[in-house]
Structure of Thiamine-phosphate synthase:
Amino acid sequence: MAKPGKLRGLYAITDSQLLADGKLLPYVEAALTGGARLLQYRDKSTDEARRLREAEALHRLCESHGATLIINDDAELAARLGVGLHLGQQDGSLAAARALLGRQAVIGATCHAQLALAEQAASEGASYVAFGRFFNSLTKPGAPAATPDLLAQAKAQVALPIVAIGGIDLHNAAPLIDQGASMIAVIHALFAAASPTEVERRARAFSALFESN
Ligand SMILES: Cc1ncc(COP(=O)(O)OP(=O)(O)O)c(N)n1
Ligand SMILES: Cc1nc(C(=O)O)sc1CCOP(=O)(O)O
Ligand SMILES: [Mg+2]
């Protein structure tokens, strides 16, 4: 199981379009330097060789910053690297992933706006539960909507760290943390930036929100 306190703070998620043209590693390094505690490699392509290469490079970056790498969707790739995994409702069995990755691995589960899905994920061995989307998301506009009061209910009912995701930016994140989110997962408002310096500035600002909460 993850150490207490490890699953708190900014959770950066990569995006293949935003981080094309050589931006993946410098922008991720900037996010980690700015304080991101978790990094999810989210790449929907079927180019296995490139995915392995990129995930290995991200693993090295995360290790050098003391951050946790999570692979989206792909339990085999997570097992190959010995890192964490995020699974949605259509991405295969959480219990099987836990058996494959072992009890130390961080495994997250998408729960949309449903507490029942979070309770099920907890019983199947999840390390955290993710709710969203809380705001309009440019990355995933069709994701089912959730409201912030869900976070307080989840905190009372589910004994796992809670991730909030979907359209989160520096102006709307704080109330989600106040309501019970221990991690804020962000793509666009972190990585749609003109330079690594700007990514680092944003990551520092997101991370600072956790210091006053
Ligand atoms: C932290 C986090 N929360 C939710 C998701 C969404 O997962 P999923 O529903 O499987 O959708 P895809 O990301 O696979 O398109 C996530 N990736 N990370
Ligand atoms: C990948 C993903 N899953 C969501 C969900 O609600 O399950 S919202 C989302 C996209 C998050 O990106 P952005 O910070 O750019 O909105
Ligand atoms: Mg998925």
About this structure: The chain has one domain: 4-211. The pocket of 3NM (ligand 2) is lined by residues 110, 132-133, 137-140, 143, 165-168, 186-189 (CB under 6 Å). The two ends are 24 Å apart (CA to CA).
